[in-house]
Automatic annotation (TrEMBL):
<dbReference type="Pfam" id="PF00954">
    <property type="entry name" value="S_locus_glycop"/>
</dbReference>
<keyword id="KW-0418">Kinase</keyword>
<dbReference type="InterPro" id="IPR024171">
    <property type="entry name" value="SRK-like_kinase"/>
</dbReference>
<dbReference type="Pfam" id="PF00069">
    <property type="entry name" value="Pkinase"/>
</dbReference>
<dbReference type="InterPro" id="IPR001480">
    <property type="entry name" value="Bulb-type_lectin_dom"/>
</dbReference>
<dbReference type="InterPro" id="IPR000719">
    <property type="entry name" value="Prot_kinase_dom"/>
</dbReference>
<keyword id="KW-0325">Glycoprotein</keyword>
<keyword id="KW-0732">Signal</keyword>
<feature type="binding site">
    <location>
        <position position="544"/>
    </location>
    <ligand>
        <name>ATP</name>
    </ligand>
</feature>
<protein>
    <recommendedName>
        <fullName>Receptor-like serine/threonine-protein kinase</fullName>
        <ecNumber>2.7.11.1</ecNumber>
    </recommendedName>
</protein>
<feature type="domain" description="Bulb-type lectin">
    <location>
        <begin position="19"/>
        <end position="148"/>
    </location>
</feature>
<dbReference type="Pfam" id="PF08276">
    <property type="entry name" value="PAN_2"/>
</dbReference>
<dbReference type="InterPro" id="IPR000858">
    <property type="entry name" value="S_locus_glycoprot_dom"/>
</dbReference>
<keyword id="KW-0245">EGF-like domain</keyword>
<keyword id="KW-0472">Membrane</keyword>
<keyword id="KW-0067">ATP-binding</keyword>
<dbReference type="InterPro" id="IPR003609">
    <property type="entry name" value="Pan_app"/>
</dbReference>
Length: 808
């Protein structure tokens, strides 16, 4: 009852506050002032009372001179004159002096901040409906100073971002870099590094361009942001009338767009720059790991402890002593035996001493051992064998989506018996290591260690390589400009193609590669797939699309450019496309072992049936792939047709999801508030969520439902849609199947469900968890878990013994 009363009174309280504030002035002449003791009274209020300006309390006896949204629950500041330097709660004063200078003075009379303008002109200070505090020369009407030119951590609609403005929150900055690209920068006490746009993708891979010189960005009232570097984003409630918005860089380093809920005075996030909070650099400090499950938390790497119990940003210090690496003792070799501590699904971004591709784990370990300055090495088990020796351990993060592990280098004398170790006895840090010692305390903007004389040849080589790259790019640009077959509006997309492995194929190229579309690999509702071999000998899968309803080449290019940037170990990689006349085709990586249905069901089974370990690995891989599409990829992608036929298996029987994104290519109507409306139904009977049949807008939970069906089929080894009643005539409804599953879970008799071809060899706990997850996926849409939740639950089960138990 108390909660209801509070909500009922809130509109009345807001109304009374607005009436009180409406009596305050929105323009003042020279000679006006406000003392901090009168902080309950605003200095200025905008004409429509949306914004107020005055003293805003920041602590027990600390105040800022700020502008805030009047009707918000906690007086959300959008600008402050003195961020980080609050004034005393007694005797402090803001004054608009006789000579027209607006200044803030602390209790001792010291000027903390001022506008540095004045004179004998006729000046006024006013607060506009946009939230802009302006000093105007009344004789000319010109604005001499305005808060919009000096933002703190927030950008308001109609307030421009330019080369001279930046948003700052602690160590984090949102700004235009000198290459004309909007970035997020961590500039901490020890390191400085850019973390957005994604450094791994680069400018072009993130859909940006540095070919501009205006450096201009703006958020409009409808909730759409546009920037000269190609950055585009919009609020999820785009166009909702009368909504108040703000774009803020928060103290956790993430950039968020907020919308105000008028009824409650509370802000809601309607867009966020980084879906993975741990992608922000510097959150947890040196030698520490960031993890999100489901809230952000920091932890020290094994063998390390917090440097300051009150502040994670100060990172962690080793609990063991490390040799003092200097140029002298490194040249003589360090007579230490080392052990490596494995931390799974973990990496430290940046500070790579080298990059070695297609090497074995043992070779990677030896590379680190031979470098005196190597503190750890990252080894990515992505089918290639990528090795990254690390000089310093900054920007650590743990994610179930990361396809590798970090191996921390510690002296063998360290007591680490309780930790998973990879022994490397008998090997020492050799004097002729391939990397120089790290220069302490120095790092460039991308978090790489400082360079010394031994790197001169490397940089010379890089310069030559960069020049050749520039020539190639220039040739591509000339080709683009001189061939009228490519519309000018596609130039940005073409630049993306030039900067990545994603490319455009001609119809004749793909016709030749497939032998005139001779060898068919499979077919479905979206098209037919053919095997092809490109000129360089690469085997690919070419899909001729049959249900793509786009207006022309521009729309098709825009759609597939999104998929070209998606890269995950459990997703089939898209290498390129063809858009020529009426031909629309996609070129995929070739996955050798066909689809999951061929390994699970009846007469389709290829060779032997999948073992339990293989089934669980497929289930986990598919979950991680879908979680990436839903939560981590550059653009929100719903698969809409998750089924065994669209889960392909590699030579090592790892799962790769195919046909993701084809729902987008099929065309969407306008987005609804709680989902999207597809122009026509996409999916397969038996795997389609109930909301399809009801004609409701769909969201990522349709994939969750379909995955739940597939997960159950992996356990039982047969099609759910093939299940019939005892008389063999009427198919079972999903409600009946769910009820039967609940009874099995309640009884604990999981063996009665598991595929009999496994002969009782399976993990009972894993099987029970998979059935429970499947049941939760069949619930009402709002009750279903996310794919991220599912991935984490299966990952937790993956920690068990790798050998299946025998259940008689």
């Amino acid at each position: 009852m108390g909660s209801f009363s509070s909500l009922a009174l809130l509109p009345l309280i807001s109304f009374l506050l607005l009436q009180c504030y409406a009596s305050a002035q929105h323009t003042l002449g020279t000679g006006s002032s406000l003392s901090v003791e009168d902080h309950a009274r605003p200095f200025l209020v905008s004409p429509d009372a949306t914004f107020s300006c005055g003293f805003l309390q920041a602590g027990d006896n600390a105040f800022y001179f700020s502008i805030w949204f009047t009707a918000t629950k906690n007086k959300t500041a959008v600008w402050s004159a003195n961020p980080g330097y609050p004034v005393n709660g007694r005797l402090s004063r803001v004054s608009f002096s006789r000579d027209g200078e607006l200044a803030l003075a602390d209790a001792n009379g010291t000027t903390v901040w001022d506008t540095k303008i004045g004179g004998n002109r006729q000046l006024t200070v006013s607060l506009n409906d946009t939230g802009n505090l302006v000093i105007t020369d009344q004789s000319t009407g010109h604005a001499l100073w305005q808060s919009f030119h000096w933002p703190t951590d927030t950008l308001l609609p109609s307030q421009a971002m330019s080369k001279d403005t930046k948003l700052v929150a602690g160590y984090y900055t949102f700004y235009y870099d000198n290459d004309n690209v909007l970035r997020l920068l961590y500039d901490g006490p020890e390191i400085a590094s850019i973390y957005w746009p994604d450094p791994d993708l680069g400018i072009w891979g993130s859909g940006r361009t540095n070919y501009n010189s205006s450096r201009f960005g703006i958020l409009n009232n409808a909730g759409a942001f546009r920037s000269s570097d190609g950055l585009r984003f919009q609020a999820s409630d785009l166009g909702s009338p009368g909504v108040k918005r703000r774009l803020t860089i928060d103290k956790d380093g993430n950039l968020r767009l907020y919308s105000l809920v008028n009824a409650t005075g509370v802000w809601t996030v309607t867009w966020v720059a980084l879906q993975k909070p741990c992608s922000v650099h510097g959150l947890c400090g040196k030698n520490a790991l960031c993890e999100y499950q489901p809230s952000l938390r920091c932890s020290c790497a094994p063998g390390y402890e917090m440097a300051d119990r009150r502040d994670w940003r100060k990172g962690c210090k080793p609990t063991f002593s490390l040799p003092a690496y200097t140029a002298i003792n490194c040249s003589q070799g360090v007579p230490e035996e080392y052990t490596f501590v494995k931390v799974a699904y973990t990496d430290f971004y940046g500070y790579d001493l080298a990059f070695n591709k297609s090497v074995t784990f043992e070779s990677c370990m030896n590379i680190c051992l031979q470098m005196c300055s190597c503190a750890a090495f990252s080894y990515r088990m992505d089918g290639v064998g990528n090795c990254f020796p690390k000089g310093v351990l900054f920007n650590g993060y743990t994610s179930s989506f990361f396809p590798g592990s970090i191996y921390l280098k510690v002296p063998s004398k360290v007591n680490a018996s309780a930790l998973p170790l990879v022994a490397a006895k008998g090997l020492a840090c050799k004097p002729n290591g391939t990397s120089p010692a790290v220069v302490p305390g120095y790092a460039d903007m991308y978090g790489r260690p400082g360079s010394g004389p031994k790197w001169a040849y490397f940089f010379s080589f890089a310069a030559v390589l960069g020049f050749l790259e520039l020539l190639i790019f220039a040739a591509g640009w000339w080709f683009l400009s001189s061939h009228h077959s490519i519309p000018s509006s596609l130039q940005a997309g073409y630049r993306l193609v030039m900067a990545t492995q994603f490319r455009r194929f001609s119809y004749q190229e793909l016709k030749n590669a497939t032998g005139n579309f001779k060898e068919e690999l499979g077919r479905g509702g979206s098209g037919v797939v053919y095997r092809g071999v490109l000129d360089e000998g690469t085997v690919v899968a070419v899909k001729k699309l049959t249900d793509v309803q786009v207006q022309g080449e521009e729309e098709f290019w825009a759609e597939v450019a999104v998929f070209g940037r998606i890269n995950h170990i459990n997703l089939v990689r898209i290498w390129g496309f063809c858009s020529e006349g009426n031909h629309r085709m996609l070129v995929y990586e070739y996955v050798e072992n066909e689809s999951l249905d061929r390994h699970l069901f009846g007469t389709h089974i290829i060779g032997r049936s999948l073992s339990w370990a293989e089934r669980f690995r497929v289930a986990l891989g598919a979950a991680r792939g879908l979680a990436y599409l839903h939560h981590e990829c550059l653009e929100w992608v719903i698969h809409c047709d998750v089924k065994p036929e669209n889960i392909l298996l590699t030579r090592d029987l790892d799962a790769k999801i195919a046909d993701f994104g084809l729902a987008k290519l099929s065309g969407r109507d306008a987005a609804a508030s709680d989902g999207v409306q597809l122009s026509h139904m996409r999916g397969t009977t038996g795997y389609m969520a109930p909301e399809w049949a009801l004609g409701q807008p769909v969201d990522a939970k349709v994939d969750v439902y379909s995955y739940g069906i597939v997960l159950l089929e992996i356990v039982i080894g047969t099609r759910i849609s093939d299940q019939t009643t005892a008389d063999g005539e009427e198919r079972l409804e999903m409600g009946q199947i769910a009820q039967a599953l609940k009874q099995v879970v309640a009884s604990g008799d999981i063996g009665s469900l598991v595929d009999t071809r496994l002969n009782g060899q399976f993990h009972p706990r894993q099987a029970m968890e998979m059935v429970k997850i499947s049941l939760s996926c069949m619930e009402e849409r709002s009750s279903r878990p996310t794919m991220d939740d599912i991935s984490k639950a299966l990952t937790a089960c993956d920690d068990e013994d790798e050998h299946p138990a025998y259940v008689s």
